[in-house]
Amino acid sequence: xxxxxxxIFDPEPSxxxxxxxxxxxxxxSKKNQLVVVTGGGSMARKYIAGARELGASEAVCDQIGxxxxxxxxxxxAAGLGDSAFPEILDRLEDLPRFATSGLIxxxxxxxxxxxxxxxxxxxxxxxxxxLLVNATDVDGVYSADPRKxxxxxxxxxxxxxxxxxxxxxxxxxxGEYALMDLLALRIIKRSGIPVRIVDGQDPSNVEKALHGxxxxxxxxxxxx
Length: 224
Known about the structure:
By secondary structure, this protein is α/β, with parallel strands linked by helices. The chain contains 8 helices and 9 strands. A 7-stranded mixed sheet has the order 3-2-1-4-8-9-7, with helices on both faces. A two-stranded antiparallel ribbon has the order 5-6. The longest helix has 23 residues, at 58-80. The chain is globular.
């Protein structure tokens, strides 16, 4: 399972970068079933900000973010060509059928009140993925927000419980899910699927993570 954060499509979609990801994903999919989730990025945030100014509810703002994430999914699918399932997944219950095709399944967001990280976690749980690689705009998990705390340290590994404590201070509205929202984290926690957070600016980081290299931060669930 691969989650491509919206930052990968920012500030404007780069055909070169998307093609780089498509090449990595296609190569890995030759021997592995892959599902890829795309985020909405700054474009989603711009539309959401405009909708808020116009008085739209948070539910409507979420719907707007979902639609933008699906546009990014279509862009990635274009780069994947015939290797991608011909439809963009928009209902979780269709995932098992899509996945049995042997093609790469591409999706964006699923429903209001749920980030694309949560959608990725649910999809990973549905297919019982061996690993969820989350390519985002940071190079890993830190002990605190490094933009606010210069003493924050990057962690090579963190439990879902520890990460929940780090993130619990944050509030979340549509388009403001930062590294990972608590809903996504709780799905990861219950499923026990390991998650590796990597810097999404370089497609080779995802390639390394998919092949089991130690890169970024691994989120693990404590044994019950």
